[in-house]
Amino acid sequence: QVQLVESGGGLVQAGGSLRLSCAASGRTFSSYAMGWFRQAPRKEREFVACISWSGGRTTYADSVKGRFTISRDNAKNTMYLQMNSLKPEDTAVYYCAATDYVARDNAKDYPYWGQGTQVTVSS
Fold it and tell me: What is the DSSP annotation of the chain?
């Protein structure tokens, strides 16, 4: 089993940048495919990006493509989400998640979750 802890959230103006981190502990980090999801108030949790165990394959939601970059450093047991050109509609709690299987865009495929970190983008 793996434990996940997100950090790096905060308040930023529209057009700004943030980098989220997801630190993993427990089982070997490199054996998991990973994903980022987010949930805004009164909305369902939605897919943001995912990355394969090796980092060689990434997938993004259309809403963040070209602005966000997912990456991982298996030596540091950490995954990242670099968020540029932030918009007010990016405001949400961001969660990292891990799966023993293939990285996909469905939250139900991920059994392991962090507690979330708040990202607020002001206009």
Answer: -EEEEEE--EEEETT--EEEEEEEEES-GGG-EEEEEEE-TTS--EEEEEE-TTS--EEE-TTTTTTEEEEEETTTTEEEEEE-S--GGG-EEEEEEEESS---S-GGG--EE---EEEEEE-
